[in-house]
């Protein structure tokens, strides 16, 4: 299954394409929220399961049950859609006030827009996951998709977690930096 890198690159590239095709109506705000939900959204349960396996067995059980419900294209939207859209609306307002990202209209994203971006991110995440899945006939399909294939304690490789986390932070940070600097035509970002 694809790791965080392919999810980030796929959604940022499609967000850049939508920005170009819609003449800026699909803004960096839209792309950032879409990307976060496609990358980390449905895997929150898997991450909490992994974190719980490090911190203790009772937390691993909580993380495992959370992973079962959250790592689903529709349950993620139904369970976390409303709380996340409220959070993202607030974050969008802060990003505009601190001038970290620009908006064509000068307004933060609405709750409705954020809810639709949460939904689009979830569906994009599973679209990419299904490209690497074995036609849905694998008995360990759910475990592989959620990266929770371990039986006892999760294999912890702190170096890999650090490197992947650092690269993802650099990718998102670079995206914010490019979009808050002088206005550049979206297709020019590909040439940089």
Number-wise, the strands total 0
Low-confidence region ranges: none
On the 0-100 scale, what is the average pLDDT? 75
Strand residue percentage: under 5%
Shape: globular
Structural class: mainly alpha
Oligomeric assembly: single chain
Largest sheet: none
Q: What is the total domain count?
A: 1
Number of helices: 9
The N- to C-terminal Cα distance equals 29 Å
Radius of gyration: 17 Å
Q: Give the helix level as a range of percent.
A: 55-70%
H and E string: HHHHHHHHH
Transmembrane segments: 74-92, 160-178
Keywords: Membrane, Transmembrane, Transmembrane helix
Would you give an account of this structure?
- The protein has nine helices and no strands.
- It has 192 residues and is mainly alpha-helical.
- The chain has one domain (4-191).
- α3 packs antiparallel against α4.
Q: How are the SSEs ordered, and which strands pair?
A:
Blueprint: H1 4-21, H2 28-39, H3 44-55, H4 57-70, H5 75-97, H6 111-131, H7 141-145, H8 158-180, H9 186-191
Provide a concise account of the structure shown.
The protein is mostly helical.
Features:
single chain; 192 residues; 9 helices; 0% strand; globular
